[in-house]
Amino acid sequence: MQEGNHRPEEFGTAVNGVGSSTDERMADGEGPKTLTTRQGHPVTDNQNVRTVGSRGPMTLENYHFLEKITHFDRERIPERVVHARGAGAHGYFEAYGKVGEEAIATVTRAKLFQQKGKRTPVFVRFSSVIHGAHSPETLRDPRGFAVKFYTEDGNWDLVGNNLKIFFIRDPLKFPDLIHAFKPDPVTNCQDSERIFDFISNTPEAIHMITFLFSPWGIPANYRQMQGSGVNTYKWVNAAGEAVLVKYHWEPKQGIKNLTQAEAEAIQGKNFNHGTQDLYEAIERGDFPEWELCVQIMSDGDHPELDFDPLDPTKLWPTDKFPFLPVGRMVLDRNPLNYFAEVEQAAFGTGVLVDGLDFSDDKLLQGRTFSYSDTQRYRVGTNYLQLPINAPKKHVATNQQGGQMMVRVDLAPGQDPHVNYEPSSLDGLKEAPERGKEHTPYAGGNLVRATIARTNDFKQAGERYRSYSVWEREDLIRNLVNALSTCRKPIQDRMVEHFTKCDSDYGQRVMSGLKAHPNGKRVKEGLHGPIGNTGSQEAVQEAERKGHPAKPY
Phi then psi for 450, rounded to 5 degrees? Predict the structure, then answer.
């Protein structure tokens, strides 16, 4: 072996580069680009398996083939249940050092915000929610907007969507919501009747439906869409005092959405258009940028409002709680490998740094368990040791073992025999407090109950009335097309909900359904995906237009 100029400790269990192309030690005759197996064996023939004679049979001791094909068989980790289709990029967050025009230290002690011009590395993953990893990026679906900040105090994940609200407020209903929107378990086709059967019995979702079926339900691309933390969080200052906070990403490139007809035309030409748009913009130096704004409210129930500030189905009115800029984010580098960086990227709403905290938002608390639990199943126990997920700072834990552990988190001078705490030996020690701890009071009877101020229809009606003429027309058209394949009791419940939002809203949907030619299809049980126009015609058209071919 060619030893090179290395210290012995560089080749232990916790070394970057060992067993990879960055390790400079090579066998005789090897160069930096020599093909090897994962065991480090140089591969002299990568074209032919070992056989008895040139025609075979093949022998079982083909180690190179067995390693290569068995790894290939396992190249995919389990697909995300939601947010499977995604694109990502690296960049940085630059703090303004203030919140609006006030010193930011008055409301949070989080270090990444304090100094004007301070830059924190980030990785962002955009996604669609319902469909699979290679589904078209033109489908009517919320878009995920997840940002990982690699701060000096460890990682902070701000995990949300492009739309600022959500369908439900209780995490117990999340599996039901996703099941309703996912393909039918029998036909494996998305079915609008299943979706509206659930939605018509879940009136809190009407606000989100009013967004989703408008042009806001199909962003033109990832660069020109907003982002939001959706849930209510808290900021904590050095004195341990907290405020409620909402996060919003506003694109400097402007906002663009698509109508259903425009999306269908684009899908026929390129179903990867969003990923391609983001990648090519960064490659040509047209770096997308967003401003991070927050809304702040004092910590409390706020009975003067007609909604609960912890309700994720509601917006905070900007006339009372204005957007306050705190920094900007620029994406300036594409991933080198999609799987290693975008697919294996793992986010969680519980990943907060000092100065950031949770609110009592039930959906947020449910997400906080579910997200990290998903990553441990999907990527593995040691998913936080992967470079894309690991913090860019000192890590020292007493966590050991688990599938695919790649290093031991030993601190300098730590006794490797001591993997517990407390210890009077050379083990790990607790960190000092960064500031006074926030200690909110919690008390009451244990109950199963919805929040008191549901007010499911007011903001949906306000949103409907705020739309321009063409946005309202597209909303009504999309709702009528989707609801036309549903049975009448479902249609009637949805019309009732829309009417409670705004009488014109309900009247236009009802009139559209009466005039729609889909009545017979409902009786035949033929239902289509949401928003899609002419889905049944497409099935018949494929057979009618298909060109006959002779067997061979």
Answer: -80, 165
* pTM for the whole structure: 0.90
pLDDT digits (tens, 9 = 90+) for 251-297: 999 999 999 999 999 999 999 999 999 999 999 999 999 999 999 99
Structure tokens at 160: 């949300």
Q: Which residue segments constitute the domains of the chain, with CATH numbers given?
A: 1-32 (no CATH), 35-75 (4.10.91.20), 86-385 (2.40.180.10), 458-542 (no CATH)
Rounded to 5°, angle at Cα 466 from 460 and 468: 125
Q: d(Cα 464, Cα 513) in Å, to the nearest integer?
A: 18
Of these residues, 64, 90, 131, 161, which one is catalytic?
A: 161
C-alpha distance from residue 504 to each of 242, 386, 507, 517 (Å): 42, 53, 5, 22
Judge whether residue 140 has pLDDT over 50: yes
Instruction: Give strand pairing partners of 292.
Output: 249, 327
- Scanning the structure block, which residue is given the tokens 């519980």? 350
527 catalytic residue (yes or no):
no
pLDDT tens, 309-328? 999 999 999 999 999 999 99
- pLDDT number for residue 159: 97
Among 64, 83, 90, 131, the active-site one is 83
Residue 238: how many CB atoms within 10 A of its CB? 13
CA dihedral 74, 77, 78, 81 (to 10 degrees): -150
Q: Is 161 a catalytic residue?
A: yes
